[in-house]
Amino acid sequence: MLTFIKVVHTIIWVIMASSTFIIGYSVIRMKYDVVFFISLCLIVAEMIVIMVNAWTCPLTVIARRHSSDEAPNFDIYLHRSIAKYNKEIFSGILFIILLIYLYNQAK
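The chain above was modelled as a monomer; its predicted structure follows.
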């Protein structure tokens, strides 16, 4: 079961990382199409889920039932440091994207 959770969690992570890239690319190009808005909705939905679950991914909670491993990447196929600082990394990237958007709007 843990392997299944890790695969699903990794697939979701790839989708969310891709969504972040799409948002950033769209902001730099200043082209806001359907793919941009879908990506934005996915990121906002993820943020809500994480906040509602006390800053923890619900899949991590489910995976904890199947493992006693304490490694940051026990529930996902990511490098240990990326898994550990995932929220910080993507929060920083999204903040930079927001600054670029605000700069573009001010021009």
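The CA atoms of residues 24 and 96 lie 9 Å apart.
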